Amino acid sequence: MFVIDQSEREYRFGDSGPKYLMKGPRSNFALVRFNPGQDFPAHYHNIMEENFYILEGKVDVYVDDQVHHLHPGQLIHIEPKQVHYVNNPYDKPVVMISTLAPYQEVDKVDVPDFKIQCFPL
Length: 121
Fold this sequence. Notes:
This protein is mainly β. The protein has one domain (about 15-120): Jelly Rolls, CATH 2.60.120. About 5% of the residues lie in helices and about 50% in strands. It contains 1 helix and 10 strands. The strands form 2 sheets. Strands 1-2-9-4-7 form a 5-stranded antiparallel beta sheet, with no helix packed on it. A 5-stranded antiparallel beta sheet has the order 6-5-8-3-10, with no helix packed on it. The radius of gyration is 14 Å and the shape is globular. The relative contact order is 0.27.
């Protein structure tokens, strides 16, 4: 058992990205923030499933060949091996919770040019 305050952790990119409150041993739990115009490269996980629950703002989550426009109160569940790309094209930050399970130290596979291949500009 443990208790942690989110102020004890930092976002990966300073004022944005994931802020892991827990990494393992069975799952990850993170507070995620993306500022307007920020994104996170397309990738998938071989073993872990991932969930995003939107707390504030709006975000576009591309999964395989579909885009999902999400807003506060919505959750998206992403299965292992489903390619996903997260983008905030909106004018306000998005804040969401991310969970990943079962925990794996290394399980992220980058997918270069995913957005260009599936969603031509």
